[in-house]
Amino acid sequence: MSEDLKGKVALITGANKGIGYEIARQLGSRGATVLVAARNIKRGEEAANKLRLNEIDARTVQLDVIEQKTIDSAVKQIESEFGKLDILVNNAGIIPRIPHC
Q1: Which of 5, 13, 47, 66 has a CA between 20 and 30 Å from the CA of residue 23?
Q2: For residue range 11-49, what is the model confidence (pLDDT) as tens digits?
Q3: CA–CA distance from 45 to each of 4, 6, 33, 51, 97 (Å)?
């Protein structure tokens, strides 16, 4: 028996594709509101729209985990819209920025 996540808010980084999208789909199918966090807002919105077609409460949050201004903006958005965050899945891949030699 799966746990009912109705009323829970879940933020999934890198949720616009692959494993992150599947995590968002599964949490959403169990009743959670899923916040599709993506660096590219257009790709995030496309993923959220696809989830909504499956009757999942999906919203988009622009977030790049290595850009502080997007982190701050995401925090403000979540506080304003929901007042809480119950589940955080950090699925974002990070490629180190190495200067050319």
Answers
A1: 66
A2: 999 999 999 999 999 999 999 999 999 999 999 999 999
A3: 25, 22, 15, 10, 27
The correct answer on CATH 2.60.120.280 for the domain covering 9-89 is no
Cα 26 to Cα 24: distance, rounded to the nearest angstrom: 6
Instruction: Enumerate the domain spans of the chain.
Output: 9-89
> Which among 74, 44, 40 is positioned nearest to 60, based on CA atoms?
44
**Burial class of residue 65, CB neighbours in 10 A (0-12, 13-18, 19+):** middle
Distance CA 57, CA 70 (A): 22
Residue with tokens 């494993």: 19
Residues 53-64: tens digit of each pLDDT: 999 999 999 999
- pTM for this prediction: 0.87
